[in-house]
């Protein structure tokens, strides 16, 4: 009548009328009451010859936070060690977060957590835990295999109490939940808590922040990418939920895949289908597009990537933290010094005035046939498009970020300027379009070490003379840039994206940009003259220089031998 209400009120000030305004200000009026575990102890049992436990049962029903009751005697030491054992157990393995005494069933939070654990352990996705999956679950949680005899006994208990708890000699979700309910009813809370904590849950049955976000050190100028282990795990997750085996995730399969998470990390209809390659027949996300979207998230928000890897069970399946799924690249200053990037993911900022066609250029990166995009109005606000390209035979990922320019005089923020390669876009059919691009280059990139490509879109239309001090080609000559690349969706040519990736992979090393292209492109860079004997002359010159060097080397060697 006094202590139990007082403890409950002090744990929940709002229930006692205090702090209501504070709770309402925080929008927390629906908060669950906090219940500290309590052990009810009847002392001086040596003075009476009967038990008082029957009178306590009604109190336990009114106060579910009472974990246990024990009668003891300090004089005779009766149940003294048991009392401290129950107190310790109440803190380490409390019952109230897991089990409702009144209803004799698991709490909703405990059920939700165990359902997620069941789905993660269901490797083949058949909604059953077979012997292999149960053994793997046992090893991950308790570091010991499940003996065949014990496994058969467990199945027999489930079958006896829950008829549909076993199906085809495998444990169903109902059977899995019943098993944990049985553990708690028999006082083996530690078993269920060991499972929950192995899968990242704290005492409030919420995912621990340390579990979701392990500390990751990223030096300035470095970036984050998926490691090989991270990619292999995501491929396995994709294949597990691709139930029809068509190599693509339908909206239903995508929703089911993220059922172990609080919510999907992106929208299926307005994000991943607009920012990554998809199956153009069905509009569904392919394995390639799936990996591309994770690659994008890992670069721009690696913390979110680690969180969702934990939700999907990376820590359990790989028996390691999410840090094993992340690769931190070397610093950009080292790449610039070596004139070669060690990264496999590059960020390209696409900057240009409104109506220049930069959004269509970005979306063209994702489709096989760009003709489908002609005349299409892009309504979604997706700013990043990602796909893979081949650079010197190696697969690289290129992210095109469409920088939104509302007004020509708006300044660009540092995060809008800094990237691996900049693509400045103007409309070649609009005489006033190039001026904005020129001003952006002079203001932000003229003194920068970031490679820049200038692109003239809508080249299928009549090219207009630009109302600027210099024409685009003259501007590029003056600032030692590559000549403007002319682009149109109607031509359906994708060499622009390969050029951008190559420039990002080899910053400040134009020779690498040139050598990549065939002779038919060399004239574009001013390296192909009309002299048909140029290459013959160059070859003879190289041969003569080699021969002369060989003769000099032989002479020096002979002189050295004569001296000895």
- Please tell me how large the radius of gyration is: 34 Å
CATH homologous superfamily identity of the largest domain: P-loop containing nucleotide triphosphate hydrolases
Shape: elongated
Helix and strand content put the structural class at: alpha/beta
Please indicate the percent range of residues in DSSP E strands (runs of 2 or more): 5-15%
CATH architectural grouping of the largest domain: 3-Layer(aba) Sandwich
Just give the CATH class of the largest domain: Alpha Beta
User: Count the helices. How many?
Assistant: 25
DSSP E strands, number:
16
* Intertermini distance: 110 Å
CATH topology of the largest domain: Rossmann fold
The overall pLDDT, averaged over residues, is 85
Q: Order of strands across the biggest sheet?
A: 12-13-11-14-15-16
The biggest sheet, with number of strands, parallel, antiparallel or mixed sense and barrel status, is: 6 strands, mixed
Question: How much helix, percentage-wise, in residues?
Answer: 40-55%
Subcellular location: Mitochondrion outer membrane
Keywords: Calcium, GTP-binding, Hydrolase, Membrane, Metal-binding, Mitochondrion, Mitochondrion outer membrane, Nucleotide-binding, Repeat, Transmembrane, Transmembrane helix
Protein name: Mitochondrial Rho GTPase
Domain Miro: 343-506
